[in-house]
Amino acid sequence: MTTNKKTPSALLSLLPIIVLVLMLVATVRTYGSDSLSGASQVTLLAVSAICVLIGTCFLRIPWKDFENAITHNISSVTSAILILLLIGALSGTWMVSGVVPSLIYYGIQIIHPDIFLASTCIISAIVSVMTGSSWTTIATIGIALMGIGRAQGFNDGWIAGAIISGAYFGDKISPLSDTTVLASGAVNVPLFKHIRYMLITTIPSLSIALLIFAIAGFVQDTNSTHEISLFTATIKDRFCITPWLLLVPVLTGFMIAKRLPPVVTLFLSTLLAVIFALIFQQQVLHDIAGDNLFKGAMQSIYGSTSIPTNNPVLTSLVATRGMAGMMGTIWLIICAMCFGGAMEAGGMVRGITRLFVRMIKGRTSLVASTVCSGLMLNLAVADQYICILLTGNMFRRIFDRQGFERRLLSRTTEDSVTVTSVLVPWNTCGMTQATVLGVPTMVYLPYCFFNIISPVMSIAIAALGYKIFRTSANQQGDASKA
What's the number of CA atoms in the CB half-sphere (13 Å) around residue 297? Predict the structure, then answer.
């Protein structure tokens, strides 16, 4: 707990965010796609130092407070780091074992290019509702859908945007989702009451996103049938394609349905893929590590693999990085947690929130302030779980005082924090999905229509006053005040 006597002003609180954005713009312009190799991490640490400098020199906050906050933030993402390593292992083994190539092979023949983007969004949404995890959805079926989309000639941004839109819709409304449980539990709203109330903003947001993806699928130029046939022929020539390989995702789905812990599910799914690789893809393992099948299997788990094909797009697609490919993201997450801890210990998070609290005049401004605060917290704290807790804790008394039901707060928190976390390049979600899909955050961001529309929809529904009720103690108040 901080011991500072002063509270930073809104301008002073926003200063580190402004510096961070400017430095990241300069970093990306200088290093391009290599910015995640170290430059962005250094930028986050440099801005963390600015936070500490402001706190110690101007607000008289002891270093110990910063150290404790940073340590707490880093410890809070240790399970996410372990999951990231296992996602790297799963991605590598699913590719080398032929699971992802099989999904691509069969998917290309089933999904017509005209409906691919809309279908991708729907498939991702269904899988995410069933799993309760956008991360698992994107790391499994999402990778396969990326391959199908690239084979059909779609832009990476459109494909990733459709995958992420669907995955975060499912993550948001699934009773198995940890963010959904956290958002409702943080403000003491029953889980299914929270989910039902979210449908009011979530269904329209997804419907608009699906309409955009459907139109885009028809108007975009895609590869010819001949090119797609050559692509599938190359896959079949390079990998042993068989329906037996589909047992891996089926059994993975079964483990998820049984609600096994994510770490256990990912580990067992990786192990299954290794076994299937040893059975069906011995030639691929020989190409990776010579005559040593064990070495090839191990390398698919932890390291980089390159499987040459006659198609440059396919060669790039089936190249894997395993656990080692996640190290840059993990490094970035640790640096982001340092920044978030420094912002929190320095009181900048409270300063930013107070800026929006002052703007509250009625129902619409209350929801808009919560949305804006959630967005700013995603920028400042860089972790959606912490942001959900902070938003709930900071606004629940304000919602109570204004006389609005807390389910409005829990819904607004999800509309502003959960779905937008993936749009921030230095947020844990943004970093993870960019790494898993191989598409930079700023490339897919303009196409994540569900994630962009959701916060706007939350404010629009508040302005309309649709199904927004006051608590019993305030029923006589003016519920229509906006």
Answer: 16
What's the number of CA atoms in the CB half-sphere (13 Å) around residue 148? 28
- Return the biggest CA–CA distance within the chain: 79
Q: d(Cα 181, Cα 172) in Å, to the nearest integer? A: 10
- The pair of structure tokens assigned to 379 is 């920028």
Closest CA to 379 of 404, 416, 414, 412: 416
Q: Enter the tokens of residue 229.
A: 């046939």
The larger pLDDT score, comparing residue 408 to residue 387, is at 408
Mean confidence (pLDDT) of the chain: 84
pLDDT band at residue 224 using 50, 70 and 90 as cut-offs: low
Helices (H), 220-305: 225-238, 247-257, 262-280, 282-289, 293-302
91 close to 143: Cβ distance less than 8 angstroms: yes
Can you tell me the distance from the alpha carbon of 384 to that of 244, in angstroms, rounded to the nearest whole number? 38
Query: 188: alpha, beta or left, given left = phi > 0 and alpha = psi -120 to 50?
Result: left
Q: Is 459 within 8 Å of 362 (Cβ atoms)?
A: no
Backbone angles phi, psi at 408, to 5 degrees: -65, -40
Domain boundaries, the chain: 79-178+192-326
Contacts of 411 (CB under 8 A, 6+ apart): 194, 197, 198, 200, 201, 458
- As a whole number of angstroms, the distance between CA 435 and CA 83 comes to 13
Residue type, position 45, single letter: L
Structure tokens at 422: 């993936």
CB 376 within 8 A of CB 352: yes
SS3 174: coil
pLDDT beyond 80 at 215: yes
pTM (2 d.p.):
0.74
Query: Phi and psi of 305, rounded to 5°?
Result: -130, 145
The angle at the Cα of 274, spanning 268 to 279, to the nearest 5 degrees, equals 130
The closest of 416, 405, 400, 418 to 467, measured between CA atoms, is: 405
- Hey, what amino acid is at 100? V
| Burial (Cβ within 10 Å: 0-12, 13-18, ≥19) of residue 224 | exposed
From the number of C-beta atoms within 10 Å of its C-beta (0-12, 13-18, 19+), residue 480 rates as exposed
Residues in Cβ contact with 148 at an 8 Å cutoff, skipping those fewer than 6 apart: 103, 104, 107, 108, 111, 116, 120
Burial of 401 (C-beta count, 10 Å sphere; 0-12/13-18/19+): exposed
17 alpha-carbon distance from chain centroid: 21
170 phi and psi angles, rounded to 5 deg: -65, -40
